[in-house]
Structures are given as structure tokens and as C-alpha cells.
Amino acid sequence: MSTLDRIFHLTEHGTTVRQELLGALTSFFSVAYIIFVTPTYLAQADMDYTGVLLATCLASAAGCFLSAAFGLPFILSPGVGLNAFFTYTLCLTMGYTWRQALAVVSLSGLAYLVISVTPLRDMMISCIPPSMKSAISAGLGMFISLIGLLNYGIVRAENGTLLLGDVSASTTLLAVLGLLITGSLMAWKVKGAMLIGIVATTLLGFPLGVSQMPETLSLSLDALSPLLLSPDFGGLLSLGVLPLVTAVITFTMCLCFDTLGALICIAGAGNLLDEQGGLGRNSRGMTAVALASAAAPLIGAPAIGIPVEGSTGVADGARTGLYTAATGVLFLAATLLSPIAGVIPGAATSPALILIGMLMIGNAANIYWHNVSLALPCFLTMIMIPFTYSVADGIGVGFISYTAIALVTGRGRKVPPITWGLSAMFVVMYVLSPL
């Protein structure tokens, strides 16, 4: 028996070193787009693009190594929906600085850690119906797509109205071409379609004058220095206690539902669910995400999740921590890409946001639309997330409407106490926020 077999129990899980390494390569190219998408988001919150790119690679590598230590076949890296919450809700809507927002993320990770190792986990999972969880994911998808459309001119805002952008503008034209290229690659089921699409769109950007060569191609870790140990815990109360509690609880809920959905998706793709259809030992993925999310802000990275694109490697036969450890090594190697970070224009990452949003909106199919008392809160959650530019407000409106309708229709006793408590918290927040 080889050393790797003894460490990772390959034979026991019915896999081989070759399967694990090929799975790592497949999944890495499926999720590598996050290396460029994450700094695109966080740069809008005044964080340094190159520094965030380095932090994303390092945090993803550390997360994968942690997952390997747990013996889990789940890649850990920043999530697109969590990035959107960080930038557009915590920073641009609630008004936290990026340093304070990193502190919120760290606290949310610690809160999720408590939930993941106690009975609170089951309480959190059961506090709202599956349809509401699907609505949150679908609403995030709409939000992410809207950001991709707006940021690079495919859609423009004018006098309070959304209009079609000027497609003749070079940046907008590049984003449209990138969307067609990446969408076609996905339709052809090309592995790593989003990463290939980003590269191809960047190359097209040179003749259009959008892509520019960086001033230097030398590798430097200096950009990471301002992000190290940067969370501002001392300034968290600058906006008051209630906004902080709301931010932490809402972010923790997003972490919980995002992780649970990804675990079920990936475990299902690899036939890793137990006989009752549960996660079994794979539920430890929640603890791994919590630990990684609590620690990642210390190097300037946002919350860590489990990308569902990791299901590609698992579907190909990867089953153990060797797969995630190998993926972590690939993320470490990706730090060498930092010198060319400036080459990637935002218009090249915009198509990835739109297409990720498209995939997430598919969760709306899981909503019980025939039941109006449940469908209405789900619908309000979905539309309020993009319309208010706030994940927290979308979830808040969804919770309030869900409990209010349950009360009016005589089903109030069937609503879990934790759901009533969260709804009351959102009501208090909305009543006090204008004061």
C-alpha cells in the first residue's frame, strides 16, 4: 500500500491517485475564474486588485488544505454570491469600510462555526422552508447578473430607468463578445469554459483597446502587505449595534444556505450521500467553511465557500482529501499569475458574472409556486435582492412577509421561533433605520 493510499484511504473510497489528480485539474480549471472575479468585485470597495488576487489564491489554497485535513472532497474558495454581499451590501449599501466589512466576515465565520458544531445547525437549516432557500439563491443569481450587465455597459441606468447600453462602445462590445464566447463554450460543455472565456475575451480586448499590458511582469508580494491583519474590529460599532447584528446574522445565513446547497449538489454528483440521502461525514464541510471564512479576512480575502463547480472533479471520480490537497497546490501556483492581473479588463469577467447568475436563477424551479402563501415571500425575496441592491434587504423582506402571511392565514404556530426572532429583528431594523 502506497503512502498516499495510507494517508488518504484511496482504496477504501474506491479511487486512485490518477483519478484524484485528474479530478483536481478538472475542478481547478472549472473554478479558476474566481481568481479574477473576486478582485473585480472587491476593487469596487476600494481594495487593491492585485492584492486581492493574491489573497484569493492563498486563501483558496489554505481552504483546500483544510478540507483535505478533514478528509473531504470539497474545494474551498471565495464565493461569487458572498463577494456580492461583501461589496454591494456591507460596503456600498450599509456603509462599512472594507476593513470593517472584513471584520464582519470574520465574525460571521465564527458564528457559523458555533452553528456548525452544535444543534443550532439543524435549527438554522430548518428555520425556513427549502423554497425560501432556493429563492435566496435565485435572487442572488439575478443580482449577480444585474451587476455584470450594468458594470460594463450592456445595460445602463439613466434617470432612474434601466436601458440597453451602447453596444458600439468598445468596453460594452467586448463584454457582449465575451458573453457569446463563454456561453457557446458552456453549451459545448467545454471544461473550464469560464476561464477560457476570460482569457479569450482578454485577448480580443487588445485590438479593441480595452486590454492593456501591465507595466511590469515581475512577481511581487508587496500588494498583499496592506491587506494582512487588516480587519477593523474596533470600528464595527461605528454604524450602531443593530446594523452590525443584522449584517452578521444575514451573512451567516448566506454562508449556511450557500454551503448546504453546494454540499448536497456535489455529494449528489459523486454519489456520496448516505442511504437516507443525508450528508453523513460530509457535513464536516460546514465546519471547514466556517473556519476558513473566519480566518480568510486576516490576509485580506473575503468569505470562503464551496463552489458547486467543484462537482466536476467529484463526478469524474475524485473522492478524498488528495483531490482537494492537489487543488490547493494549483491555487498556490496561481499566485504566479499576479503580474498579469492588470491585463484582465473588467469586461472580460463580466460574462462570467452573468452566466453564474443564470445558473443560480435555476434554483427558482425548486419553489412551490402553486402555494401562494409560500410563493409570494419567495418572489419578494428574489426581486428585492437585485432591486434594492442588497442581499440583506431581500432576505429581510422575505422573512417578514413569510411570517406575516403565516400569521394572517392561521399558520403562525407552524413557524419556528428562530424565524419569528429573525423577522422581528428585521422589522426593528427597518423601523429604526430612518431615525
Question: What report would you give on this structure?
Answer:
The chain is mainly alpha-helical and 435 residues long. The protein has one domain. The protein is 61% helix and 3% strand. The protein is built from 18 helices and four strands. Helix 8 packs antiparallel against helix 15 (346-361), helix 8 packs antiparallel against helix 17 and helix 11 (241-269) packs across helix 12 (284-295). The model has no long low-confidence stretch (mean pLDDT 89).
Radius of gyration from the CA trace?
21 Å
Q: What is the overall number of helices? A: 18
Mean pLDDT score, rounded? 89
Shape, please? globular
Tell me the distance between the termini. Answer: 68 Å
Number of strands: 4
pLDDT under 50 segments (min length 5)? Answer: none
**Helix and strand run:** HHHHEHHHHEEHHHHEHHHHHH
Largest sheet: 2 strands, antiparallel
Oligomer: single chain
Class per helix and strand makeup: mainly alpha
* Sheet with most strands: strand arrangement: 1-4
**What's the number of structural domains?**
1
**How much helical structure, as a percent, in the residues?**
55-70%
List the helices and strands and how they pair.
Layout: H1 3-8, H2 17-31, H3 34-42, H4 49-69, E1 77-78, H5 80-91, H6 98-116, H7 120-126, H8 130-151, E2 155-158, E3 161-164, H9 170-187, H10 193-205, H11 241-269, H12 284-295, E4 304-305, H13 311-315, H14 321-333, H15 346-361, H16 372-387, H17 391-408, H18 417-432
Helix pairs in contact: 2-14, 3-4, 3-5, 4-12, 4-14, 5-6, 6-7, 6-11, 6-12, 8-15, 8-16, 8-17, 9-10, 9-15, 10-15, 11-12, 16-17, 17-18
